[in-house]
Amino acid sequence: MKKYCLTLTLFLSAAISYAQWQPDVQLTSNSSRDLGSFNNSKWIASQGSEVNVVWASGEALDVWHIRSVYEGVTWGSMNRVSDIGNDEWYPSIALDGTVNPVIHVVWSDNRSNWEIYYKSSTNGGTSWGSESRLTNGFQYSTYPSIAASGSSVHLVWSENIAFENNAAYYNRSTDGGVSWQGTSGIQLSNNPSTSEVFPSISLSDTHLHVVWTENDEIYYRQSLTNGTSWNPIVRLTNDPSYSRSPCISASAQDIHVAWQDRRDGHWGIYYKRSTDGGSSWGEDTQLTNTPAPAYTPSLSVSGTVVHVVWEDNRDGNKEVYYKRSTNGGASWGEDTRLTNNSADSYNPSVAVSGTVVNVVWEDNRDGNSDIYYKRDPTGNVTGIEDIGSEFPEEFRLAQNYPNPFNPSTLISYQLPVSCYVTLKVFDVLGNEVATLVDEYKPAGIYNVEFRMQNLELSSGIYFYQLTAGDFIQTKKMLMIK
Known about the structure:
- It is a single chain.
- The protein is mainly β.
- It has two domains: about 20-375, Neuraminidase (6 Propeller), CATH 2.120.10.10; about 395-480, Immunoglobulin-like, CATH 2.60.40.
- About 0% of the residues lie in helices and about 50% in strands.
- It contains one helix and 36 strands.
- It has one helix at about 10-15, and strands at about 25, 35, 45, 50-55, 60-70, 80, 90-95, 100-110, 115-120, 130-135, 140-150, 150-160, 165-175, 185, 200-205, 205-215, 215-225, 235, 245-250, 255-260, 270-275, 285, 295-300, 305-310, 320-325, 335, 345-355, 355-365, 370-375, 395, 410-415, 420-425, 430-440, 445-450, 460-470, 470-480.
- Strands 2, 3, 4, 5 and 6 form a five-stranded antiparallel β-sheet that branches.
- Strand 16 and strand 17 form a beta hairpin.
- It is globular.
- The two termini are about 35 Å apart.
């Protein structure tokens, strides 16, 4: 096994040198326009030390891609994903894998009719596989959002099913994007919407979570079977004004949704969460509280840390703002202004990996729309306990507590160096039943909760295994019902 650990000295140097948000980085500089996507379509994705960004560029709006293999510190060259010469809008990206991940990209294309197209790359975007047309709609197939894990790739989009009527649709591939289940897809929403549905998808293990706008309210639907079947629709909002442009991000049983809402007479950012896999939902939480309008939130979650960015007009022009919760959305920190220029900064998208928070947005400070990037190297503090000035001296996987357990148990582990970490649960036959951790972690002490809700597990012995660099350790636990 290859070793992906950094020394503790390097980690401490990085923590000291890169404190909080770093300066803006201009990723594109063209005389023509460079456009990202709305919040529902993630146009930035990160895994391990990789950060990948897609956008539409040029007068004819082709889709382009750029990546960093050094956590956003330096960037490689730009690569063209599509080159058709027609309008190609709203690209969305997903990564699968931790070292040299597969890159999955979808976009809406107007070469004949607005349809959704797909491509993937297995070599960091240097070259791209064959193109697939995924829809064959009535008029418009737009606003795609994509998620991927292993051989499963999942897509949702807005489909114009009749004149001025739209619906949320779903399609999937079970062979890594090679083939798809037809070009018709599955309609997830029930009633045709007179407004755009702006669907957003998130994947946690084999559980799919989708939100969309339907007649100015936010709706949610989940699949616990990797998209084979879908549970009933849940209405998340119920106010007399407009609720639009939702985004969703899930981690284990915790599901987080943010959207723009006009219930107070102006557009603001609202948030809602479920802590039991979508079975029940908490109250709406108002994240912005100024009379100026705020739009297009984007969410990213890692463990109990939730990150939100949005476009905000409180400063007299559009700027990008950021907010964070470190306790799973129970409470939130202060607003942080990420941009500060006399022009507009808008349509932000956020992704996290390890300790790094990555944000991209569109910016016209140079007189035309360009893509900008910003990072906080220490902003994602998932799972680290207060260990003061002391760091662990060795790798260690503790016995879960309580043991036996029902319905949840706590698993602790410690890292003396920064490493890529996986923590997985297996049954007695060696079948993987849950992935609790799968990301780059800095040195520290971590607690991870394993909950049996919605996993349909029987009583008995299970094993949990920690892999961190060359360190591998397995322990046994007992679940009772």
